[in-house]
Design brief:
The protein is an all-alpha fold. The protein is 78% helix and 0% strand. The longest helix has 30 residues, at 58-87. The radius of gyration is 17 Å and the shape is flat.
Length: 93
């Protein structure tokens, strides 16, 4: 019987979510750092290649599935601190 707390479907989609997370992080880093230049196509292809390599390595996917929840918690905490400081009147300079 299917319930709202059934996580078997999420385990089925875990490789897709991990692929998208790795792709987004690598693409964002390449776009921001301009490491390979300003070519969007080159950055997309490199991000796809790295994501596929992570998807094919079982140890890497296990590592990403363990680290991803902690990454989300870290981002939420960082945004919360920024929000607190901006409400207190700290200027970005």
């Amino acid at each position: 019987m299917a319930t709202l707390l059934d996580t078997a479907f999420l385990n089925f989609l875990l490789p897709v979510f991990s692929f998208l997370l790795i792709f987004a992080i690598i693409y964002g880093i390449l776009q921001k750092s301009k490491f390979l230049g300003e070519s969007i196509n080159l950055n997309v292809w490199v991000a796809i290649a790295v994501s596929i390599l992570f998807a094919l390595a079982p140890g890497a996917m296990t590592f990403v599935s363990v680290i991803a929840p902690w990454f989300v918690v870290l981002v939420i905490i960082a945004f919360s601190f920024l929000l607190i400081f901006f409400f207190m009147g700290v200027k970005v300079e």
